[in-house]
Design brief:
By secondary structure, the protein is an alpha/beta fold. It contains 26 helices and 21 strands.
Length: 802
C-alpha cells in the first residue's frame, strides 16, 4: 500500500463535517426519556380510565376511584423501568461504539464512523465493515457483499474498485477513499436491519398479548355504553347508580396490567443481562432464546477461547531431523513477513517463527475462506500455507494418516508447501515431473504441482467453563451442533473434550451436496470444513425440521447463518460485522453466559404465561358477566372498588412476585392458546357462580349490596384456587405469596371495608355465599380436566401439522 498518502487534514475534516458532509448514521438509537414518558401516560386505556374517573366524580361515587392509584403506580413503574433500562443500554452502546482507522494529517487515527467525512482515507483489514461507499486507492482485499446482493462469493477489490457500504472485508488490507457518506450511502439502512427487528417480526408472546389488548380495546366502549343505557334508561336506575356498575364491568375487561407486566418483566431482564455484560439489540431475542432447542456453535471462540498458539511444527514425515527443518523454518518466517493477514492464526505463527526481513515478493494472495490457503510468490519460488486438503488436493490421501493422527489429538493442522505455479494458483511456472496437463480451476491449487514442506500444528485452549456450559444444554434437552471451517476430526475431538453429546458423529462438509444437508443435520453433530454458504444452509435445514435455532458467531463468515437463525449471538471480541448483525451480543465474549441468558428468557416467558392466565380469568369473566347483565336486563353486581381489590390480591401482587421467580422449564406450545385454555375453567366458574348468585338474589329478594359483597368473596375464593393451581407444584416461595395475598385481602376487607365497598351482610347471605363457594370447587375441577384434555389434543394436532 502507498504509505505516502496523507489523507485529509483535521481542519479540512472539521470543515466538511460542519458542511453536512459527515458520515452521520440513521441509527437505531432507541427512545428518548420524553418518548418513554409519553408512551406510558398517553395510552388508549389511560384515556378510558380518565373518562371513567370523570364520570365517577360527576356521579359522586368517590369510593369507586380506588383503581386510580393502581393506574398511576403502573405508569410510574413503567416510566422508571424504561428510563433505567435505556440508561444501562446507552452506557453499553458507548462501550461498543463502532470505529475505524483513518489517515488524518498523514497519521493513522482511530475515528468514530459517524465522525468520518467525504474524502476521508480509511484503512480496511479482515473483519472490518465498510462504513461508507468508497474506492480502493491501494492494496487488495476480498469483500463479502452478501447482505447487499445475496451472493456469498467473495469479490477481489484492487486499486480503482468500488466498495459498497454494508459489505465486509474477509481478508487482505487496503486504503480506501470515501466517495459517499451518511444518508447517501447504504450503511444507515443496513444498521437498522441488523439492529432492529421489523414490527412484523414480533415474538409469538408479544403478538398474542397485542391481540388480547386490541380485542379488549375494541369491545369495552360498546359494552360500556350498552350497560349504561340498560341501567339508566331501561331499568330506571339513577346516574350515580348506573355509572359505578358500568365502570366496574369495563375495568374488569381491561388487561392493562398484562401489558405493563410484560414491559416491566422484559425491562428488568434487559437490566439484569446488561449488568452481566450482555446486550440485546431487540426484545424478540429473549423469547427466541427461551424456545431454543438447537444451538449452533463454532469451535473457536465458543468451545475454545479466542487465543491460539502453535503447539509444534514438523516435517511431512512427522520428524524434525537433519538440516532440512531449520531451513524450512527460515522459509516459513520469510513467508509470514510477506502476508498482511491480521488474525489470531497469523499472530500465533508470528509468535512461534522468528520474523525475518523480507527479500520482497513478486505477489501474494491473503487467506480466503473460499480457497482455504494463502500464498506468496518470490522471485525464485512460490509457497502456500493452508488447510492440507486444499493445499495437497490429489496428494492428500498420501499424508492423511499422519494428518489425522494430529487431528485426533484436537490439533489443527496447516500445511506449508512449495507450489510450482503462481500465487493465484495458476499453471506451473516450473512444473514438477508429476505435473498434470489439466490446470486446476481458477483460484484452486493443482496438487500435482505441490510439494509439502512442513505441517504446522495449532491449538485453541478449551474454555474452562465449556464442560459446565454444555452440560447445562444437555440437561435442558438442547441439541448442540458444531459448525466449523476446521478439519472435521479435529473439531470432533475438541467437541468430545468439551463434553458435547454425540461429538463422534462428524462429517467433512466438502463431501456434502446441497441436497445432502437436510439428512446430514439429522445424522451428524460436528460439521468440518464448512463454507459460509453451507452454514446458512445448515441453519435453514434445522429450521425446516421444526427446530428453534440459535446461531453463535464471531466472524464475517457467520453472518449469513446468523441472519437466518431464530436468534443470533455474537462475541464482541470478534468482527464488528458479526456484532452488528446479532440480536444478542456477549460484550466480554464469554460463552459461559449462555445458560444464564437462556434461563432469563425461560423465566420471563414461563412466568408471563402463568401470570397472563390470572389476568385473562378476570377479563373473560367480566366480559361474560357484562353480556349476561345486558341480555337479562339486570344491574352489574360488582363495584369498581371491589374489582380493584380482587385485581390487587388475586392478580397484581401475586403476578408480580411470581414473575420474579426462577423458572427453567422449556417453552413449548402456542402462548395464546395455552393461556386461554388455562384461564377458561376459572373464568367460567366465576361467571356461572356469580350469575347463579344474581338470579338467586333477584328471585328471593336478597339486597343488591349483599349480592355484591358475596360475589366479591366468591371471586376471591375462585381466584385463590386458580392461583394455587398455576403455582403447582407448591414450594415455600409460592406458598408465602399465596398466604400473603390471603392475609392481605382479609385485612383489606375488614379494615378498609368502606374503601372497597365491603358492607355488613346478613347471616342468610353468608350461608348462601358459603354454599356457592363449596359448589365452585368440584365444578372448577371438572372444567379444568375438560380444558386440559382440549389443550393436549390441540397440541397433538399442532405437532402433526408441524
Amino acid at each position: 500500500m502507498d504509505n505516502k498518502i496523507m489523507g485529509l487534514s483535521s481542519e479540512k475534516a472539521k470543515e466538511l463535517y460542519n458542511q453536512g458532509k459527515g458520515n452521520v448514521q440513521i441509527e437505531n438509537i432507541g427512545k428518548t426519556n420524553g418518548q418513554i414518558i409519553k408512551e406510558n401516560i398517553f395510552t388508549y386505556f389511560n384515556l378510558i380510565f380518565l373518562i371513567m374517573a370523570i364520570l365517577l366524580i360527576i356521579s359522586g361515587a368517590f369510593n369507586s376511584l380506588t383503581f386510580l392509584p393502581v393506574i398511576i403506580c403502573n405508569a410510574l413503574i413503567g416510566i422508571f423501568q424504561g428510563i433505567r433500562a435505556k440508561k444501562i443500554l446507552d452506557d453499553l452502546k458507548v462501550l461498543n461504539q463502532s470505529t475505524v482507522t483513518a489517515i488524518r494529517d498523514g497519521k493513522e487515527k482511530i475515528v468514530a464512523i459517524d465522525k468520518l467525512v467525504l474524502g476521508d482515507v480509511i484503512v480496511l483489514s479482515a473483519g472490518s465493515q465498510i462504513c461508507a461507499d468508497a474506492e480502493v486507492i491501494s492494496g487488495e482485499v476480498n469483500v463479502n457483499e452478501a447482505l447487499l446482493t445475496g451472493e456469498a462469493d467473495e469479490i477481489v477489490k484492487t486499486a480503482g474498485s468500488s466498495l459498497m457500504s454494508g459489505s465486509f472485508v474477509v481478508s487482505g488490507k487496503c486504503l480506501a477513499r470515501l466517495t459517499k457518506v451518511g444518508h447517501e450511502s447504504y450503511i444507515s439502512q443496513l444498521m437498522l436491519r441488523a439492529k432492529k427487528m421489523p414490527s412484523s417480526e414480533q415474538s409469538e408472546m408479544v403478538k398474542s398479548i397485542n391481540r388480547i389488548v386490541a380485542f379488549a380495546g375494541l369491545i369495552i366502549i360498546p359494552i360500556g355504553i350498552c350497560l349504561f343505557v340498560q341501567s339508566f334508561y331501561i331499568q330506571g336506575n339513577s346516574f350515580s347508580e348506573s355509572v359505578p356498575s358500568m365502570v366496574a364491568a369495563v375495568i374488569g375487561m381491561i388487561p392493562e396490567g398484562l401489558y405493563l407486566l410484560l414491559s416491566i418483566t422484559l425491562g428488568l431482564s434487559t437490566i439484569r443481562l446488561a449488568r452481566q455484560r450482555v446486550m440485546l439489540h431487540d426484545m424478540r431475542s429473549i423469547e427466541a432464546l427461551a424456545r431454543v432447542d438447537t444451538i449452533c456453535v463454532d469451535k473457536t471462540g465458543t468451545i475454545t477461547d479466542n487465543s491460539m498458539l502453535v503447539a509444534d511444527a514438523v516435517l511431512p514425515d512427522g520428524t524434525k531431523d537433519g538440516e532440512e527443518f531449520p531451513r524450512v523454518v527460515d522459509i516459513v518466517a520469510e513467508y509470514i513477513s510477506c502476508i498482511p493477514d491480521e488474525n489470531i492464526t497469523m499472530r500465533a505463527l508470528e509468535d512461534y517463527f522468528p520474523l525475518r526481513s523480507s527479500l520482497g515478493s513478486v505477489s501474494f494472495h491473503p487467506f480466503t475462506s473460499k480457497y482455504k490457503y494463502s500464498s506468496v510468490q518470490f522471485k525464485n519460488a512460490t509457497y502456500v500455507l493452508g488447510a492440507p486438503e486444499y493445499v495437497l488436493t490429489d496428494k492428500y490421501p498420501a499424508y492423511k494418516e499422519i494428518i489425522d493422527s494430529y487431528a485426533a489429538k484436537g490439533l489443527r493442522v496447516l500445511c506449508f508447501a512449495r507450489y510450482f505455479g503462481g500465487a493465484d494458483g495458476t499453471q506451473a511456472v516450473e512444473a514438477t515431473s508429476e505435473s498434470t496437463s489439466i490446470p486446476a480451476p481458477e483460484g484452486y491449487l493443482d496438487g500435482a504441482n505441490t510439494v509439502p514442506m512442513m505441517f504446522i500444528l495449532l491449538q485453541n485452549p478449551i474454555r474452562e467453563s465449556a464442560l459446565e456450559t454444555f452440560a447445562f444444554f444437555k440437561k435442558q434437552n438442547v441439541n448442540v451442533k458444531v459448525i466449523s471451517g476446521d478439519n472435521a476430526l479435529t473439531v470432533s475431538e475438541v467437541a468430545k473434550n468439551a463434553g458435547i453429546d454425540n461429538a463422534d458423529r462428524y462429517v467433512d462438509a466438502t463431501t456434502l451436496m446441497d441436497e445432502d444437508i437436510p439428512h446430514a443435520v439429522r445424522k451428524y453433530t460436528v460439521f468440518g470444513r464448512v463454507t459460509p454458504d453451507q452454514k446458512q444452509k445448515i441453519v435453514r435445514a434445522l429450521k425446516a425440521d421444526g427446530h428453534t435455532v440459535a446461531m453463535t458467531g464471531d466472524g464475517v463468515n457467520d453472518i449469513l447463518a446468523m441472519k437466518d437463525a431464530d436468534c443470533s449471538i455474537a462475541m464482541a471480541a470478534g468482527s464488528e460485522a458479526a456484532v452488528q448483525a446479532a440480536q444478542v451480543v456477549l460484550m466480554d465474549s464469554d460463552f459461559s453466559k449462555m445458560p444464564m441468558i437462556v434461563a432469563e428468557g425461560r423465566r420471563n416467558i414461563n412466568n408471563i404465561e402463568r401470570t397472563a392466565t390470572l389476568f385473562l380469568v378476570k377479563n373473560i369473566f367480566s366480559l361474560l358477566l357484562a353480556l349476561f347483565s345486558i341480555i337479562n336486563v339486570v344491574t352489574y353486581p360488582l363495584q369498581p372498588s371491589q374489582i380493584t381489590m380482587i385485581s390487587l390480591f388475586n392478580i397484581g401482587i401475586p403476578g408480580f412476585f411470581l414473575a420474579m421467580e426462577p423458572n427453567n422449564k422449556r417453552i413449548e406450545g402456542h402462548f395464546l392458546v395455552k393461556v386461554l385454555l388455562k384461564a377458561m375453567p376459572a373464568a367460567l366458574t366465576d361467571f356461572l357462580a356469580i350469575a347463579a348468585l344474581v338470579i338467586f338474589g333477584n328471585t328471593f329478594g336478597v339486597k343488591a349490596s349483599d349480592v355484591s359483597v358475596a360475589a366479591t368473596f366468591l371471586l376471591a375464593i375462585v381466584g385463590f384456587i386458580i392461583l394455587a393451581n398455576i403455582c403447582m407444584p407448591l414450594n415455600k416461595y409460592r406458598l408465602r405469596v399465596i398466604l400473603g395475598c390471603v392475609v392481605g385481602i382479609v385485612v383489606a376487607a375488614f379494615i378498609f371495608n368502606d374503601l372497597f365497598s365491603i358492607s355488613y351482610v346478613s347471616i342468610e347471605c353468608v350461608m348462601l355465599f358459603v354454599l356457592f363457594a363449596i359448589a365452585t370447587e368440584p365444578f372448577m375441577r371438572y372444567l379444568t380436566m375438560l380444558f386440559s384434555y382440549i389443550e393436549s389434543r390441540f397440541q397433538i394436532e399442532l405437532t402433526k401439522k408441524g
